[in-house]
Amino acid sequence: MKIEKNTRRKFLKNTATIIAGFSIVPRHVLGKGFIAPSDQLTKGIIGLGGMGRGHIGYAGTRVVAICDVDKNHLLSAEKLIGGGVKTFHNHQELIALPEVDIVHIATPPHWHGIMAVDAAKAGKDIWCEKPMTRTIGEGKKVVEAVKVDTFKFKKILCVDSLDLYHANSKFRLFKKNAHASYYHHKFNGRRTASGKKFDNNGYTAAHKKLPFGTKLKVTNEANGKSVIVEVTDRGPFSKAREIDLSRRAFMEITSNKNSGVTIVTIEEVIEPD
Q1: Alpha helices in the chain (DSSP H)
Q2: How many whole angstroms from its chain centre is CA 247?
Q3: Residue 58: its pLDDT value, please?
Q4: How many domains does the chain have?
Q5: pLDDT for 18
Q6: How far, in Å, are 159, 170, 232 from residue 191 at the CA level?
Q7: 31-33-35-40 Cα dihedral, nearest 10 degrees
Q8: Whole-number pLDDT of residue 209
Q9: What is the per-residue pLDDT across 185-198, written as a single tens digit (0 to 9) for each?
């Protein structure tokens, strides 16, 4: 058998071929504000009704798995995400995924305690919609599960639409004393000007000129309640009104649920680089 001599020239040629197939792209090349996948927290969402679908797009996170007993909810959420996620009907299968960092629980409240305990036992960080549990007893069981030292650094957070923005974001005043209204239910499911399908249970808004994707903090000037929304549509088509909110966002901050308009302060959300 002939043994081929490994010359220096051949070694350099082979090495160059290998290097040509592998490159590291500096983060700045990807553009300002881009978060590399390696810097993102991965999330699995359990419960894809209006609440779950409204909490898909948090900065710094990437949804890798979703779970719901309703196949139509799963299909709707998968379309919003753009595909590329694992889907389940059993929450324990989602929780068992090693690639999931955070389990986000957005089911009806009677499931919150059970799923939070299961997620804690699996060593996951937990984001849970309010209420965290229905009873004090359920709450104690969740606390006990989180305290177990099987895994380190477990955290549990009861979230609303603002919690995940307040910690690291800044806000730039856009307009005070602005009139806000909300979408009629007949628009639910229609395409917005941005191309996204409108969901009246989500946290979105229409504005005449702000770029699509702009995050806004909208605060009711009468009671101080705030909500974070994303601009996905154009409008309102009335000179008297500044912004149209999804019905859910409007109802979270309004003082009078029978009124169609409220006075708000609008701020742009400046997310960290």
Answers
A1: 8-20, 50-54, 71-81, 91-95, 112-121, 136-147, 163-166, 247-253
A2: 18
A3: 74
A4: 2
A5: 40
A6: 28, 30, 10
A7: 180
A8: 95
A9: 899 889 999 999 99
Identify the pLDDT of residue 50: 81
Are 71 and 140 in the same domain? yes
Domain boundary among 159, 186, 211: 159
pLDDT of 27? 44
d(C-alpha 220, C-alpha 230), whole Å:
17
Q: Are residues 252 and 191 in the same domain?
A: yes
Structural domain span for residue 179: 165-270
Q: What is the mean pLDDT of residues 223-248?
A: 92
Per the prediction, the chain carries an average pLDDT of: 82
Closest CA to 183 of 249, 228, 262, 258: 249
Buried b (16+ CB within 10 A) or exposed e, 178-190: bebbbbeeebbee
Query: Do 37 and 155 reside in the same domain of the chain?
Result: yes
The encoded tokens of residue 179 equal 């009139």
Q: Which of 104, 138, 159 is at the close of a domain?
A: 159
Token couple for 45: 């969402």
- The predicted model gives 128-139 an average pLDDT of 84
Confirm if 257 and 266 have CB atoms less than 8 A apart.
no
Q: Give the neighbor-by-neighbor strand order of the sheet with 156-159.
A: 86-88, 61-67, 41-46, 102-105, 125-129, 156-159
